[in-house]
Every structure is written in structure tokens, then in C-alpha cells.
Recover the amino acids of this structure.
């Protein structure tokens, strides 16, 4: 099974409120132990690094880079022409914001079975199973 990880779960894991961080850590650990294929995009890297770079926090930049290296089963998936077209179709059909449309299109393009996020609005997207972080 292939799981595409959206940006928010990774931010929660590193910087988030304790309950969310624990939930994300538990879920990611289960997938890693089960040998699931974990993937994300270059857009995720961009979104992860904006705040640490703005704050000049090199340590946090390194934490995010190390996290991605440790958990991902494949290299970051780059934005391509095909993904851009899919994202435009998703955005046109759903009204989702451009970054959300790109992430969903990337997940579909990569053949992901699950899209792991905290954005409940994306639950109405039916082309892929949306798994929302369960706080608890």
C-alpha cells in the first residue's frame, strides 16, 4: 500500500501540540513497521521549510530533512506537467486551493492508496481515500 503524507502531519510531528504529535507518530510508526510505502512531494518540502528558514532556525530545517529521509520510501515527488494538469482539473472541479490540489494530484499521479492529512475539507474528494489525523 502507498500512503501520501500531506504537510500538516509532518509539522504536527515536529512542532505540533502533544496529542496531535503523538497520534501522527503512532500512525507513521505503524506504517513503517508494516513496510508501507510512504511518499510526499517537493511541495511538502517547500511548505515544511518556509517557517524555519524565515526564523533562521537551521536546526529545525535539519530536523525536517532528517524526518523525510528517515520515513520516506522513495524520493520526493516533483511537480510535473502531468501533475499540474491533474491539479488544475481537481481545483476546477472542487474549488480546493492550489496547494491542496497539487498535493492530491501528486498523490494520485504517484498511485497512492491513502492521502494522510488534517484538512477535513479534503474528505469530500473521492478519488483517493482521505485519512484524517485522529486526535486522541
Amino acid at each position: 500500500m502507498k500512503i501520501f503524507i500531506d504537510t500538516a502531519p509532518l509539522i504536527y510531528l515536529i512542532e505540533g501540540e502533544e496529542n496531535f504529535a503523538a497520534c501522527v507518530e503512532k500512525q507513521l510508526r505503524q506504517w513503517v513497521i508494516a513496510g508501507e510505502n510512504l511518499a510526499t512531494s517537493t511541495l511538502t518540502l517547500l511548505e515544511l521549510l518556509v517557517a524555519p528558514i524565515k526564523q533562521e532556525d537551521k536546526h529545525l530545517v535539519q530536523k525536517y530533512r532528517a524526518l523525510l529521509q528517515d520515513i520516506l520510501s522513495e524520493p520526493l515527488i516533483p511537480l510535473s506537467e502531468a501533475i499540474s494538469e491533474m491539479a488544475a482539473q481537481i481545483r476546477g472541479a472542487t474549488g480546493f486551493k492550489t496547494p491542496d490540489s497539487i498535493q492530491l494530484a501528486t498523490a494520485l499521479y504517484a498511485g497512492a492508496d491513502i492521502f494522510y492529512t488534517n484538512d477535513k475539507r479534503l474528505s469530500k474528494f473521492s478519488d483517493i481515500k482521505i485519512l484524517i489525523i485522529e486526535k486522541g
The chain has a mean pLDDT of 95. The chain has one domain: 2-132.
